[in-house]
Fold this protein.
Amino acid sequence: MSFFRSVGTTLEMIKWEHSIFALPFALVGAMLAAHGLPTIPQLLWIIACMVAARSAAMAFNRWADADLDARNPRTAVRAIPAGLLTRRFTGGFTAVMAILFLFCAAQLNRLTLMLAPIVLVILFLYSYTKRFTRWSHLVLGLSLGIAPAAAYIAVQGSLNPRILVLTLAVLFWVAGFDLLYSCQDAEHDRANGLFSVPSSYGIPAAFALARTMHIAMLGLLVCLVSLFHLGPLAYVGIGIVAALLLYEHLIVSPRDLRRLNAAFFTMNGVISVVFFLFIAADLLLHRF
């Protein structure tokens, strides 16, 4: 019974439901590769890869940061520092999810299997970047940004450089909202020798850079739609994403971080789903 309780606690700790951040962009990559709908097996294996990879990455992050989390009042309630999980169990869970990811990647094609270990290295590296660089936000962005390119490879068996535009767009999107989210730990990071843009340059600078990154994201999305010759629905989707990003930036400010969780979790989940739905609708409309 304690094993299943630990598994449940682990799933709660890693917030596996937040796979929704990157999964819609991965599905966009898969649909662009298929010029419509991929096969059902391809979709299922891509989703399994996404969930397994993210679960491994999040569990590893909690394992690697357990001591740091214990010193931060905001994160001291997390499962490992709170004594609800052991580092040994979390490490084992990470290993199982990593193996599951490799297995799922092998079911797609040879190139996905060859690249899967590199994906894991990038995902695991992020957990240590705050110890030596203030630009860990970009590494987190890359960790999610590789999802659409990986899904494209999963369907096509090769990489089309055009899909890297979406990788860059997701990179800037994620790095931008991570800049905002990390503002709440700026003082703690400075006191504990950790690096981030807010702790190094200040919260107003972090907000300004986040806005710049999100503007860059929108420009890259427009470029993506043009490169893949998508139609009006895709541009409507980008317009809605722009409105949601604007709202996200309006509900928080350098002087008021109270609604940061709403901006980080709720709005960004909505943004990824909205973008996927409009791109999918555009692709399917052209196909049928």
User: Anything to note?
Assistant: DSSP finds 13 helices and no strands in the chain. The mean pLDDT is 90. The CA atoms of residues 71 and 188 lie 9 Å apart.
